[in-house]
Each structure stands twice: as structure tokens, then as C-alpha cells.
Design a protein that fits this description.
Largest sheet: 9 strands, mixed
CATH superfamily of the largest domain: 2,3-Dihydroxybiphenyl 1,2-Dioxygenase, domain 1
CATH topology of the largest domain: 2,3-Dihydroxybiphenyl 1,2-Dioxygenase, domain 1
Strand content: 25-35%
Strand order of the largest sheet: 10-11-12-9-5-8-7-6-13
Cofactor: Fe(2+)
CATH architecture of the largest domain: Roll
Structural class: alpha/beta
Shape: globular
Helix content: 10-25%
Number of strands: 13
Family: Belongs to the extradiol ring-cleavage dioxygenase family.
Number of helices: 4
CATH class of the largest domain: Alpha Beta
Distance between the termini: 15 Å
Subunit structure: Homotetramer.
EC number: 1.13.11.2
Catalytic activity: catechol + O2 = (2Z,4E)-2-hydroxy-6-oxohexa-2,4-dienoate + H(+)
Length: about 240
């Protein structure tokens, strides 16, 4: 994965976060406006887990699903494929989870929505949110830095998810697992592989969160149920 980006509210917020990152000890790289298509200037940094992230304030605005802002229709008429509503989250593999947690919570304003603890009480997975979503980014402990497990796209309903499964079969797309439900987040899910071998997810439902909620905790002895609530068994390929 090259990087994952987050939009901030305005240029003042971007400048403040840039200062905060440098004060925290992160090396910060500035990327000029226009270097990425339809995007303003970006601030890039590397998390202790080895992943690169970018922050930006300006992006070409296309509206929700490309609809008009005044008297919008319910949905565009020319949607194709799975018709994902938006990008939802990414799950990363890497080490140094405590340091990554500190960076995201103390500097970037995320909060812990859900976690997995081992028998010693050590956090081996952390699901972080910056909104009311189940999570915006998640990290699972892995000895190798900077790995991507999957990216996820949001669908609105279970029926949309089943239609996505039909399209996966119609196109002979390589499927990992699903349709099923997670225990973690309680979201409904399908995982599949694109032609480049990257794991993708389409996801609907999921718990809502607020920053003052206590984090939900799963334990590693229930990890099968936490990841695949119905089967309650880990898929070895899914762990790669």
C-alpha cells in the first residue's frame, strides 16, 4: 500500500496537525497541490506500524454519489457493479501497536472503538474511529511492518451485499469468504480478491460509536467468533 489519506476540515486544521505531528516526533513530508489529481497539498507521515498516511484539506467536490446539492434524486440512474456508496475503512498489519495507538489518539484525534486482547491483556488488534462509524482504520499485530490486509467499501443493505455476492460469482471473481457477519463491529461482509491479488471487502451495517462509549473488547480465545460470527472458525487464508 502506498498510503491511506484522511481529509481534514480546512487548511488551518491541516497546518495545526502538521505542527502536532512534528512536535510528536514524526518526520513530515509536504506534497504540493496538483501532484495528486484533483487534490490540494498533502502532508505525509509514517506511523510506527510502518504505514504511510496523508492528510489534506482541499479536494474536488463532486457531491454525494455525484448528485446535485439541490433537490437531489434518491440515487444516480447509471450505477454499475456493486454500486458502493463510499470508501469505508482499511485494515493494516504491522508491529508497534501501542505507539501507533498513541499517535492516532493523542495527535490525530481518533478513539478506540473495539479491541482484541490476548491472555496477558495485551492489545493485539485495535479498531479506531474518528466518527460514529464502527471504525475508520484498524491495526492488527504482525511482525512485518507496513502490510495491508484489506480495503473496504460501504454498501447500504444486506440485499446489496447479496447482490454483490451474485456479481462475484457471475464474473468468476476469486472470493475469500462470505457473505457472513463479523463479531467485531457486527458488520455484514464479503471478502474477495481483485486481479492484482489485493483483498477487498464490501461491508454493510456495523455498530455505531461515540467517543464517550467504552471500547468493545474481544479475547483471542474467541477470535474465530470475533472475525466470523457464524462459522466461528478462522480461515487460514484470511489471516495472510
Amino acid at each position: 500500500m502506498d498510503f491511506m489519506g484522511f481529509k481534514v476540515v480546512d487548511e488551518d486544521a491541516l497546518r495545526q496537525l502538521e505542527r502536532d505531528l512534528m512536535a510528536y516526533g514524526c518526520a513530515v513530508e509536504q506534497l504540493p497541490a496538483g501532484e495528486l489529481n484533483s487534490c490540494g497539498r498533502r502532508v505525509r507521515f509514517q506511523a510506527p506500524s510502518g504505514h504511510h498516511f496523508e492528510l489534506y484539506a482541499d479536494k474536488e467536490y463532486t457531491g454525494k454519489w455525484g448528485l446535485n446539492d439541490v433537490n437531489p434524486e434518491a440515487w444516480p440512474r447509471d450505477l454499475k457493479g456493486m454500486a458502493a456508496v463510499r470508501f469505508d475503512h482499511a485494515l493494516m498489519y504491522g508491529d508497534e501497536l501501542p505507539a501507533t495507538y498513541d499517535l492516532f489518539t493523542k495527535v490525530l484525534g481518533f478513539y478506540l472503538a473495539e479491541q482484541v486482547l490476548d491472555e496477558n491483556g495485551t492489545r493485539v488488534a485495535q479498531f479506531l474511529s474518528l466518527s460514529t462509524k464502527a471504525h475508520d482504520v484498524a491495526f492488527i499485530h504482525h511482525p512485518e511492518k507496513g502490510r495491508l490486509h484489506h480495503v473496504s467499501f460501504h454498501l447500504e443493505t444486506w440485499e446489496d451485499l447479496l447482490r454483490a455476492a451474485d456479481l462475484i460469482s457471475m464474473t468468476d471473481t476469486s472470493i475469500d469468504i462470505g457473505p457472513t457477519r463479523h463479531g467485531l463491529t457486527h458488520g455484514k461482509t464479503i471478502y474477495f480478491f481483485d486481479p492484482s491479488g489485493n483483498r477487498n471487502e464490501v461491508f454493510c451495517g456495523g455498530d455505531y460509536n461515540y467517543p464517550d462509549h467504552k471500547p468493545v473488547t474481544w479475547t483471542t480465545d474467541q477470535l474465530g467468533k470475533a472475525i466470523f460470527y457464524h462459522d466461528r472458525i478462522l480461515n487460514d487464508r484470511f489471516m495472510t
